[in-house]
Amino acid sequence: MSPPTPPTDKSRTSLTFRQIARTGRRYTNPLVSVGHWRRRALLVAAALLAGLVAIVVAIGAERAIEVHARMIAAAPWLSLLVTPAGFAAMAWMARRFFPATQGSGIPQTIAASLSPNPEVRGRLLSLKIAAAKVILTLGGLLAGASIGREGPSVQIGASVMHSLAGRRFGRIASSRNLIVAGSGAGIAAAFNTPLGGIMFAIEEMCRHHAFRANSTTLTAVIFAGLMSLGILGNYTYFGSTPAVLSWPSGIWPVLICGAAGGVLGGTFSRLLVASARGLPGRVGDFATVRPIAFAATCGLATALIGLVTGGATYATGYAESKAALEGITPLPFYFFAAKMLVIWLAFVSRIPGGIFAPALAVGAGLGSALAGLSPGNAVPALMILSMVAFLSGMTLAPITSFVIVMEMTANHEMLIPLMTASVIAYGFSKSVSPRALYDALAVPALERAQAEAGAHSSTRQNSDAT
């Protein structure tokens, strides 16, 4: 057998040109592919829609809070009727028609990202659920419930992006990546915090798997943020807060706020997780047997606390926190404790609504109380530090916490103190509540959705058999 003929210079040149041509086609084909640009356009349109809905929720929330505030200012006793009735109505509608809307919405979104079953995901995220979440959250705020719009914005954004999953639109991205991207877009548009949205997607939504939704998340956050800029302008949630700390004496407020916020946030997280499993004794039996009446009772307790505190504990606590940060109206020393109580009441009533924004108000109240114990320090600085610390301690998401608060207050001078307080709070909270709040709440949400999907599948099989 004759040996193989070695390639000539001409054949080598021809092979090189063929390789270059194949490589060029690989990179240029998507640029001229109608299907590729159609999928990109759908992704951008979904991100814009997610941002638009989050903005609608933001504007609607402000209007609902204003209406409630005017009503209570005119006749404070009306809260004894309106708040229990509102709690009962929101709890009944959520329980009867839209079970997946109950609570924050972030645990449901995390649960959907963990499930490989499309039917389970569809029971947690859908356009129908998103529309109901908007209406029920605004209804709760109109009734004076201490709930936020960040959790609903996450579930709404994830629902909108998840609607692109499946074969009908082609392979835009995996369902999990779309859910992660939608959650980041919801946070970014809700508070004009694009970096916070990205960090939330990475740190909170991807605890159990690697973050692979890089381009999808960036696209969603950018276009949702552009929608927010186009409608609301370049605003900061708490305005501009030029609070600073002097060094090295400033290390003590950072340590104190970090430790106090971490312990309090971890304790509150543990309370919420335990309450989600069920309340003890006769109260738990009452909540299980008569959930709507129990929700009305929670509403009545919320109204009574609101009356005692002069209306300071209603809704998100945004107005009270902003006024205190700007030095207009200081927060009373008991504000953080009263706010935690009304947040817990809204949580155990299972009405739709988040706990993220109200938690910032708790942190502001804690900082104000700590400032009273150390009058030599600037009150706004301690409030910002405690906001970060309590949020980090409650969620065990230290990077997301300091990034979001930094963007909300437009205070880059406090970056290092905020980072330090967040990490300290994370360490203290870990010793109190080792498991992250939303991660722990996602487990029962996933189990319920799986049970419902399994029951529906069994019913359908039995129907087909008969």
TrEMBL record:
Pfam family of the protein (one): Voltage_CLC
Family annotation (Gene3D superfamilies): Clc chloride channel (1.10.3080.10)
Superkingdom per UniProt: Bacteria
Keyword Lipid metabolism: no
Membrane-spanning segments: 41-61, 73-94, 178-202, 214-238, 250-273, 294-319, 331-348, 355-373, 379-405
Keywords recorded for this protein, A-Z: Chloride, Chloride channel, Ion channel, Ion transport, Membrane, Transmembrane, Transmembrane helix, Transport
Subcellular location: Membrane
Membrane topology according to the record: Multi-pass membrane protein
Main localization category: membrane
PANTHER family reported in the protein's UniProt record: CHLORIDE CHANNEL PROTEIN CLC-E (PTHR43427)
Protein name: Chloride channel protein
Species: Aromatoleum petrolei
Classification of source organism: Bacteria, Pseudomonadati, Pseudomonadota, Betaproteobacteria, Rhodocyclales
